[in-house]
Amino acid sequence: MSRVLVIGCGGVASVAIQKCCQAGGVFTDLCIASRTKAKCDALAGLLMDRTPVRISTARVDADDVEQVKSLIDHYQPKLVMNIALPYQDLTIMEACLACGVNYMDTANYEPENTEDPGWRAIYEKRRKEAGFSAYFDYSWQWAYHERFEKAGLTALLGCGFDPGVTQAYCAYALKHEFDTIDTIDILDCNGGDHGYPFATNFNPEVNLREVSAPGSYWEDGHWVEVPPMSIHRTYDFEDVGVKDMYLLHHEEIESLVRHIPGIKRIRFFMTFGDSYLNHMKCLENVGMLSTKPVIYEGREVVPIQFLKALLPDPASLGPRTHGKTNIGCIFTGKKDGKEKRYYLYNVCDHQEAYREVGSQAISYTTGVPAMCGALMVLSGKWNAVGVHTVEEFDPDPFMDALTTYGLPWRESRDPVLVE
Length: 419
Ligand code: NDP
What we know:
Blueprint: E1 3-7, H1 11-22, E2 29-34, H2 37-47, E3 54-59, H3 65-75, E4 79-82, H4 89-99, E5 102-105, H5 117-130, H6 139-142, H7 145-151, E6 154-157, H8 165-177, E7 180-190, H9 204-212, E8 215-219, E9 222-226, E10 232-237, E11 241-247, H10 251-259, E12 265-271, H11 274-285, E13 294-296, E14 299-301, H12 303-310, E15 324-335, E16 338-349, H13 350-357, H14 361-379, E17 386-389, H15 395-404, E18 410-412
Parallel strand pairs: 1-2, 1-4, 2-3, 4-5, 5-6, 6-17, 7-12
Antiparallel strand pairs: 7-15, 8-9, 8-12, 10-11, 11-12, 13-14, 15-16, 16-18
Helix pairs in contact: 1-14, 3-4, 8-15, 14-15
Bound molecules: NADPH dihydro-nicotinamide-adenine-dinucleotide phosphate (NDP).
């Protein structure tokens, strides 16, 4: 019997929860808790008659460790799935430690207020040590490793698609296809069209912060940082077609560098259309992407939060989005002394995802791996204590679960490489 507490009830959480209900043999009891309880109640109401899983709901402000602790104490889950926002990672990890419960999330920590002077001072120091300037980095959560280890608990970080499945693909390539991997290019292509001139397909604040930051990649033992969107390539994606893509900093590069021995280069590319980029540039130029509060008519307003209120809710894009995503990793390296190249990827159809769970493919490709990661922890297939990322675990049962629950992988042994 596994009781699981899910925190957050947005686009990704709603998919993960529906998928937990499909694996009702493992997930017997679910508590859906979020800041807005009405959303949890609405989802629970929808699922109640369709699943044997016993579902309850709660209100929680996960920025407050004490509130999370009392909810965990009351509900007594075996695992907390944090599918709220990266801002809550540390408070929820603290609460899990205090209550002796396993933890997982889908994105690594970043603070909501990047202007906070206390946080800023630590960030400036870490930025120099780390060699890249993204607000998100693993150091905050890796710092919990010993405490989780001592407590005999598992914390699984970043178990969505990217981060998440992309790291499982790397572990799989290393286990089955290569003796040594030299380069990894992670390609994230969204070929979907929602018909709006501008909308983000997951939380707008988190998405725009990520995309407007300087890009960086790992090469020959160090980070190379470049201005935002300054490295552009095109690629012909199976089932999508030719797309423009841009190099971004992305969190899994940081952990893969630690865990793929001898790796020479890792880059991450994401596709963007002209309309998205033009809107983003314009919003940035007028200050709408700023996290620094401004006073407007006597009230404090954070520009990017106000922008979020104006943009379409990513959870509402499902019925309008057509087309496919294609996300995966291209590897080069050696097997039995011979050079080889290999591509592992998944193609997901927005409308098929919508028909199954009422969400577009971005939420689907994140929510399914979140559930599969939870399945690995609950079933004991992934049981290392401490704080870990996906590539540290055996990829095989996880990739089997992905196939069972809607994200089968494809492979190519002769992919076109990215220049
Ligand atoms: P949404 O904005 O749709 O949902 C976030 C949810 O968290 C909402 O239910 C929100 O409540 C809740 N929440 C926010 N703050 C708090 C709080 N203080 N206490 C309790 N609940 C809170 O986001 P998404 O579903 O799009 O994204 C969820 C996570 O998935 C994010 O961390 C995102 O970065 C990550 N992600 C990871 C990907 C990957 O591949 N690894 C890809 C895409 C997303 P309310 O309704 O009140 O706002």
